[in-house]
Amino acid sequence: MENIKMVVFDMAGTTVNEDNIVYKTLQQAINNAGFNVTLDQVLAQGAGKEKLQAIKSVLAEYADNHDKQLADSIYQDFAVQLKKAYEVNPIFPQPNAIELFTELKRRNILTVLNTGYNRQTAQFIIDKLGWKEGVDFDGLVTASDVPQNRPNPDMIFFAMKRFGITEPASVIKVGDSIIDIEEGKNAGCALNIGITTGAHTVEQLESAHPDRVINNLIELLAFIG
């Protein structure tokens, strides 16, 4: 595909391998509040979402609970526990992430990371990986940077505005969850690509009707002219 100017990548599960730390911690925080949800349930309802919204979605679906104050309380516990988890657990780039970023730069295609994390958490992950904005990747957009989060396309539009891109048909979105694909579709991206390295299975990704599903980031190059 020609005339691609930017690729927007999700972080955890897509470009970052953190062994589902965030969703395991989310599960723990919810269950600490007296529930009994499984990791698969957390992934099914929460993957890719801003994390307070993920908690609300899990509680609404599996506990029939819509208590906003409870969700806020669980989120506060989650935020504390997640910081500790990221401090002690190793995280790595997904296979071929840096190689792909390098090749996109060679082709003058922007690499932007976007995430359902807030900026503080996202920056902590990036710092722990040793990645540098403007060197290893071009930009970061987080859930706390925009009014509405996935599946709304605000983060993609935010990135486009920052880099002066006016046509979503020159943007590709890559992510490991259904909501990533929905975000890209809602933005009107040229290609919306699911990847199997993270939260959702092939079958779950296919349910969102992506343009492609890949197993390794480097496969993206086959779709870019």
Automatic annotation (TrEMBL):
<keyword id="KW-0378">Hydrolase</keyword>
<dbReference type="Pfam" id="PF00702">
    <property type="entry name" value="Hydrolase"/>
</dbReference>
<dbReference type="InterPro" id="IPR023214">
    <property type="entry name" value="HAD_sf"/>
</dbReference>
<dbReference type="InterPro" id="IPR036412">
    <property type="entry name" value="HAD-like_sf"/>
</dbReference>
<protein>
    <submittedName>
        <fullName>HAD-IA family hydrolase</fullName>
    </submittedName>
</protein>
<dbReference type="InterPro" id="IPR050155">
    <property type="entry name" value="HAD-like_hydrolase_sf"/>
</dbReference>
<dbReference type="InterPro" id="IPR006439">
    <property type="entry name" value="HAD-SF_hydro_IA"/>
</dbReference>
<dbReference type="GO" id="GO:0016787">
    <property type="term" value="F:hydrolase activity"/>
</dbReference>
<dbReference type="InterPro" id="IPR023198">
    <property type="entry name" value="PGP-like_dom2"/>
</dbReference>
